[in-house]
Amino acid sequence: MKQRLSHRALIVIATLIVIAMLGLVIHDFLPEINLLLHSNDANRQELVDLIQQHGIRDMIFLYIMIAVMNAIPGMSNSIVCIFAGLCYGPLWGLTINWFGNMTGNWLVAALIGHIDFSEKFMHNRWLERLQSSDHPWITLTVAYMIPVIPSVLVNYSCVNMQIPRRNFLVMVSLGVLPVSLIYAFGGDAIFNGEFKRLIIYAIIIIVLIMLSRLIGKNVKKRHAQ
């Protein structure tokens, strides 16, 4: 008999991992956090010098946090993704965010066949809409781009619809790239005080949210017909 895992138990374990990683990150970045909270032109170079002293260890901590938080329904990793961009700049921040978000989705997809989901989850309105699309590859790829759609629902849809593994990897990679990029460059914009860039990124996020509503309305309209 195939052993099943408790959905809630996995969430508890994942949350404990996030708390542990958060404690390590705060410990390692406490001087930088203090400087960020009291940021000015005088201490900017000191902040840059402190950040540059961090090596692969702290990148791995952020990567793990992003991956695990991505896998927890209802938990947003946006603050950590922005922090990665703020501390490591847009390119390294994008790398950490992108691989963290991809890993989180891959892990969830790998575990879905072993998890017992609640009836509430199985009848989620987004789950029904995602699995009712005439163009699932496009719909699911776009769904990964939209922060308000829980990624576990998208991953479940991919597994349930038996999307080929190669296609699934491509869909996840493309789907999480825009938001990973926006958060990384947004963090860098915060560090440099470039508020015009922040406004542009905020507009993009709003457009993605509006796109999610449009997808839902189109599927609902098609069902009504």
From TrEMBL:
What domain of life does the UniProt record list for this protein's source?
Bacteria
Q: Does the keyword Cell membrane apply?
A: yes
Where in or outside the cell is it found? Answer: Cell membrane
Question: Topologically, how does it sit relative to the membrane?
Answer: Multi-pass membrane protein
Q: Name one GO cellular component term.
A: plasma membrane
Q: Give the UniProt keywords, A-Z.
A: Cell membrane, Membrane, Transmembrane, Transmembrane helix
Q: Where are the transmembrane segments?
A: 9-30, 60-86, 98-117, 137-156, 168-186, 198-216
The segment(s) forming the VTT domain are 78-188
Pfam families in the cross-refs: VTT_dom
Q: Which PANTHER family match?
A: GOLGI APPARATUS MEMBRANE PROTEIN TVP38-RELATED
Assigned protein family: Belongs to the TVP38/TMEM64 family.
Q: What is this protein called?
A: TVP38/TMEM64 family membrane protein
Q: From which source organism is this entry?
A: Limosilactobacillus gastricus PS3
**Lineage, top ranks:** Bacteria, Bacillati, Bacillota, Bacilli, Lactobacillales
